Amino acid sequence: MRALVAVRAGEPVDVLRLESLPVPTPEAGQALIRVKATPIHASDLHVLRGRYGFSPEFPVVGGHMECVGRIDALGPATEGLKAGERVVVAAVPAVPGPPVAGTWQEYLVADTRRLLPVRDHLSDSSACQLAVNPLTALLLVTRELDVQPGEWLLQTAAGSTVGRLVIQLSRHLGIRTINVVRRRGAVEEIKALGGDEVICTQDEDLLRRVAEIAGPVGVRKAIDCVAGPVGAQVSQALAPGGEVVVYGALSTHRQTDPTALTIPLQARSVIYETKAVRGFWLNRWFGTASPEIALRALSRVRGLVADEVLSIPRGRPFPLERFAEAVSLAEAPAHGIKPLFVFEDGWDQGGR
Predict the structure, then answer these.
(1) Is the per-residue pLDDT at 351 higher than 50?
(2) Which of 310, 248, 232 is nearest to 283 (CA)?
(3) What percentage of the chain carries pLDDT values higher than 70?
(4) What is the DSSP string of 223-289?
(5) Which pairs with CB-CB distance under 8 Å and at least 24 residues apart come from 326-331?
(6) pTM, 2 dp
(7) d(CA 149, CA 171)
(8) What is the rounded distance in angstroms from the CA atom of residue 205 to the CA atom of residue 152?
(9) How far is CA 6 from the centre of its chain?
(10) Which long-range contacts (C-beta less than 8 Å, at least 24 apart) are formed by 16-25?
(11) 3-state DSSP call for residue 179?
(12) pLDDT in tens, 273-282
């Protein structure tokens, strides 16, 4: 089978090689999946650079997040699924936990407890992006912060994939959102998506605008994926006792010095106003959640996408041979298109 292998840590286009590997054999409790489509996430590329929260043993097959495919075979005495069934593979490595097979290959072996059956009406493009960004949005809003109907939720990078999903989910749940963007041109787009209020840091003061919008009651819950000074401003803008969950650091996207990945918090705000700042990482959630809880959350996401509450943008298909072009698209600023590695002829871009 064909596989895209990183021979060492480094820039993806420099270290990736298209290789021929033997098709793996599933053991008890496992399934052999013939992969149909798998996305290229920024986190996948950071893993290859050695700048993510875990480091694989090189050489390693790329793709450490998710894919969609069909079960080709089941391991001995493995029940609950059947050959030919279409499934999403939640290939996010649990931390702590054992290594997980990379998705940038034609076949992979996966634990059956990480497989979510999906019907054919859901497109390959949507299905292969089901287990990371939509799940992150759901967990941030409902589990990490337990935002209630009528409450304000403040979020940065509202135009990102997760940010857009948070807006859609919040609108469905009756939650009011204050959305922070960098560019004035993004304001109307976020409002059209359902964002209640939009703050543009290009020409607006974040703290003053949050105070104007939320009034005396203020905002007590926020999510941030920018970090740096913007993350600090989000914490400062919260009401006393407020909480911000940080799940990314876009302000330091290309930073190679770990000591530079900071959020310069004001000590007085943290101490005297008892505000909390904590992190969320999907890999660590998979390391602590039981397989049953994880599949239950994924099933809820599947339902939200099937009911068109959450809309996943269609991706652009690439064969493995064009990996350099696909990686370049994944790295392009504000491209709004998710590159996907696809296998087999006639992949399904239709449906939802």
Answers:
(1) no
(2) 248
(3) 94
(4) EES--HHHHHHHHHHSPTT-EEEE---GGGTT---GGG------HHHHHHS--EEEE--HHHHHHHS
(5) 326/40, 327/12, 327/13, 327/16, 327/40, 327/45, 328/13, 329/40, 330/40, 330/41, 330/42, 330/45, 331/42, 331/45
(6) 0.94
(7) 9
(8) 18
(9) 22
(10) 16/48, 16/62, 16/323, 16/327, 18/320, 18/321, 18/323, 21/61, 21/105, 23/106, 23/107, 24/101, 24/107, 24/108, 24/109, 25/109
(11) strand
(12) 999 999 999 9
Q: Phi/psi of residue 189, each to 5°? A: -65, -45
**Per-residue DSSP letter, 315:** P
Which two tokens mark 109? 């072996």
Return d(Cα 247, Cα 14) in angstroms, integer: 28
Residue with tokens 């287990």: 131
CA geometry: angle 42, 171, 239, nearest 5 deg: 80
Higher pLDDT, 32 or 256: 32
Burial string for 8-45 (b: 16+ CB within 10 Å, else e) reads eeeebeebbeeeeeeeeebeeebbbbbbbbbbbbebbb
Q: How many CB atoms lie within 10 A of CB 285?
A: 20
Q: What is the 3-state secondary structure (H, E, C) of 194-216?
A: CCCEEEECCCCCHHHHHHHHHHH
- In this predicted model, what pLDDT tens digit does every residue of 299-313 receive, in sequence order? 999 999 999 999 998
Q: If you count them, how many residues does the chain have?
A: 352
Instruction: Convert the pLDDT of each residue in 134-156 to its tens digit.
Output: 999 999 999 999 999 999 999 99
